[in-house]
Fold:
Amino acid sequence: MTSHSQPSVLWQRRSTRRYNPFLGFFSDYHLGLFVGLSLFYSLEVVLGNKTLKKMVSANVSGDLSSEMEVDAFRRLFPLRYHERFLLDSIRPDARPLGRARDTSLALGAVASADGSALAKIGCTTMLAAVKMEVMTPPKESPDEGSIAIEFYMPPICSPLVRPGRPAEEAPVVSKQLSDTILSSGMINLKELSLVSGKAAWMAYLDIYCLDADGSLFDAALLAAVAAFSHLRIPVVSLNEEGRVVVVSEENEEGKSEKEPVNKGKRKLTLSSLPFSLTCILHKNYILADPTAEEESIMETLVTVVLDSSGQLVSLYKPGGPVLAYASAVQDCIALTRQRVKELKSILNEAISDMEVD
Amino acid sequence: MAGKSAATPSTYSPSPAPKTKRPIFQDVDWVRPDGRGFHQCRPAFLKTGAVNAASGSAYAEFGNTKVIVSVFGPRESKKAMAYSGTGRLNCNVSYTTFAMPIRGQGSDHKGYSSMLHKALEGAIIVESFPKTTVDVFALVLESGGSDLPVVISCASLALADAGIMMYDLVASVSVSCLGKNLVIDPILEEESYQDGSLLITCMPSRNEVTQLTVNGEWSTPRVHEAMQICLEACSKLAKIIRSCLKETASAPKD
Structure:
């Protein structure tokens, strides 16, 4: 057995993680029991005098006692911890308020699917794959195919999800994704037709969350769009029983009389790709691309979806304590407009990388 | 919405139906579909820290078999559980819908969760996390054959990454019997034509086997031969896992 240093396209970036042996331990216990009331107050006094910069540098210097204090403060008073950063227009991960995390995209991550992509926004990781199956189209639309979209949060992605108890967000994101993709007009369903009234493609798009760290919808949509860009439809022909069968290369030489049904239609023409950005509204601040921690503390989210030409596809604000005024919504849309440009170039780069290979 | 009708119509995969047994595997001399020797494993790629949200995690890629394992805990046991002085281990293996060549076939592997549990329980020092539970969750992203051994090896790396105490790293390798030949680390196609299979999970430094499963037709000398091949491969695989851990530990933090 040999070690292999070159993985396939799937795993290229190692997520950065500060290793703290206490972190995982404390998170599942009642911290209050450990810290005790006296320490609780002394912490507040000590931290009250510290400036923001000292808090950050203490985290980096590795001085265990002060690192523990900052960590404890972060867990006990998460909102105050974050607001102190916001005062200086910065976030705990050193991002300005309007900046999204580093984003990467790899096409063709799974060979068993007809099209697939792995999207990473910060630590949030999504794997999307399209598998093509054949169906008899319904009578109302004999020359249209169909798309079925499903979003999954398997137990590996977050400590909050356990087997047999599905995550609450999963069906919400699933519905949002299928509404967005189907209504954006990205895919012309007529292109999925094979034989009018007899056979059409059913494209199963399944998106798996591999690591949940906030802005799940954004990452899932990016992975979904990329998976469709990577999709290559198999060449098929009709056999004697009227079933649609893949024309494999070895068959092609022997039985050339069978004409492929969909010659030259291996790629879908995707028009107006949808891209999205989720923002948090908190007091007067707008935070783009929140992490899971930020989402859990500040609960008002606004998700804007624009297509590649800048047209608004959808706007989603599922309640929350902060009311969105027109100016805040416009700011969110402006941030999304910038983000769409970034995402478009990331997708184009990934597509050209794949074509070089 | 035009795309989704109320009742999803039944669909089928256009992939050709599997043919009858390929005659080539009956011969003494044939070339494996991926060009490997009979006793040669696929190149292994292993990496820790794949999932940031978990206490420890690992990604493994052996040929087309791609697996992620996350470890959570030690954390509070479920409320319904009775009191236990020692720690508990909870394992779950699932497949993505697109892992297999035909969509949705992954649900045939229900038994893998308990197999993973049995393979690992002998290696973990459960006394080191009393009253709590360690969860080991695996997701097979793509199935390329020998899925269970890859999941087990990857899980032991993820456990080490999470800092769970173990007697030794666990490595697992399987062998398929195809006609007159024994092939190690079989791919999906070879597994579908196999006459029998043997899987060994062991702790190489301690020379202890935690799990041994034998399926199909085997003669005693062949079982011995297959075990030898597997144990040798296991110790090589454990070295790779160990070097992967060392790499992570020596890399600068952050």
Summary: Residues 12-59, 251-257 of chain A have pLDDT under 50 and may be disordered. DSSP finds eleven helices and twelve strands in chain A.
